[in-house]
Amino acid sequence: MEGFEEWTCASSTIKQCFNRMAMVTSRRTPKAKEVTCDAYNDDPRRVGRVFDRMPSDRAFNHMALALRAMADPVRARILYALTVEPLCVCEMSRLLEMSMPAVSHHLRILTMSGLVTVRKEGKFACYYLHDERLTGTLRALVKDLADFDSEREDE
Q: The whole model's pTM is what?
């Protein structure tokens, strides 16, 4: 696919992906009417119907970056902590038993991915989840994975 190399973020850092996404405008996509399959199913328009409902490549790239940012256990713990209440770096450092520079590194990645925002409150910066809808999603994910893990242990 023409231009796809510019959009792929599979083997790049999060920062490199954001830089690429800012430079690339759009790649050519086929028209829905061109997307058919008459070889493998009895409904050749099925692919076109799915194509019509697919989000943009940019949306998938943002999703992949967010999931990539969440994929680190430390960052997952930070995100979960922020579902309880906003925290500053020194508080997270104590909570996670990590140095402040290490926590700051993870917060920078979460901030760049758009999952976390920072607000200055007096002398220090307080970190918040960017969107409150993320709170329910993260809590449900942790609960479901914990349930899944306990079910596997029971087997």
A: 0.69
